[in-house]
Design a protein that fits this description.
Blueprint lengths: L1 E2 L3 E3 L5 E3 L7 E2 L10 E4 L2 E4 L4 E2 L1 E6 L13 E6 L13 H4 L7 E2 L2 H10 L4 E4 L8 H13 L3 E6 L5 H7 L5 E7 L4 H8 L5 H12 L3 E8 L7 H14 L6 E5 L14 H13 L5 E4 L9 E2 L6 E6 L2 E5 L29 E2 L2
Parallel strand pairs: 9-11, 11-12, 12-13, 13-14, 14-15, 15-16
Antiparallel strand pairs: 1-6, 2-3, 3-4, 5-6, 7-10, 8-9, 8-20, 17-18, 18-19
Helix pairs in contact: 2-3, 7-8
Bound molecules: iron/sulfur cluster (SF4).
Iron/sulfur cluster binds next to loops.
Length: about 350
Amino acid sequence: MHEAMLYEKLENKKVKCNLCGRRCLVNNNGTGFCLVRKNEEGTLFSLVYAKAISACIDPIEKKPLSHFNPGAAVMSVATVGCNFRCQFCDNWMISQEKKITGKHFPPEEVVKAVRDNGCHGISYTYTEPTVFFEYAYDTARLAHQVGFFNTFVTNGYMTPEAVKTIAPYLDAATVDFKGGGEPEFYKAFSSVPSVEPIFESLKEMKRNGIHIEVTNLVIPRVGESLEKVMELATWIRNNLGRDTPFHLLRFHPDYQLTTIPSTTIETLEKAYVTAKDAGLNYVYIGNVPGHPCENTYCPSCNELLIKRFSFEITKWNLTRNMRCPVCGQEIPIMGSLHKSGYAYPYALF
Ligand code: SF4
């Protein structure tokens, strides 16, 4: 077992975990809400350090990251565990797995696999990277030393301390909202008591210069309110900037929420217009392959700049210095365009 980072020792061998917004008080021999951090005699341990439940090579567009190293191949790594209990989780088999299980895959082997497979970086994803923080932190540090980038796909429920700690090694984050960030939705469908920590961690990411893209899962009946989309998009514009990419994702029934249908295209398109009306420059519709709102358009002259089909870039129409070829508008894309020869996804295990 690996001693945890970011916790406080309290009296009677209790500890307080300061890794995620829950800030669990954990009794001796108890585990936190995520079930992957255990207090043994007043010391908090990570139970999932270097125990990868999945390692797979993905296109970076799958995260989704549309304005960060486009076309890059990333090594996706996950352990079991999550600090949410989303009834609609599409990775519930591993995120909600109660048994500590996984293949021994230490940080140095992850980085070697990245290099051996010609990947450009690492994504800590599929389950919540916050709960395997120590593993991600050590891997990210090693990866940076040899020139690979690191990205989190996260529910954003991190403490500001956690964000500050990982920030020197974290290049980009996809922060996933569900149901427009509505607090009652999070309570009822994800067992999350308060959404405030998500907004705080986003502000901390911004302060630390991490590239941010935000997603919102639009869920019919229970989380498709256009008012909430407007509210969230306005918050993003005011706090993260109008150039922050915002992805509106189509819901598919899964896990315990199988009686709710997939989001209609019409609903997604209304949400798209709403987010644009809120003043965001780069809004996308996700999980609808071939939809024109998968593409990037110039916010100044509306020229088609990047054409995509699902996670594939099918046309690149930006100048070498990332400007619109028609009007010269600078397009905020971090890193460069990559090419990889993978037929995705490519699972290592
Ligand atoms: S990571 Fe979050 S859920 Fe897990 S023990 Fe720490 S505070 Fe609790």
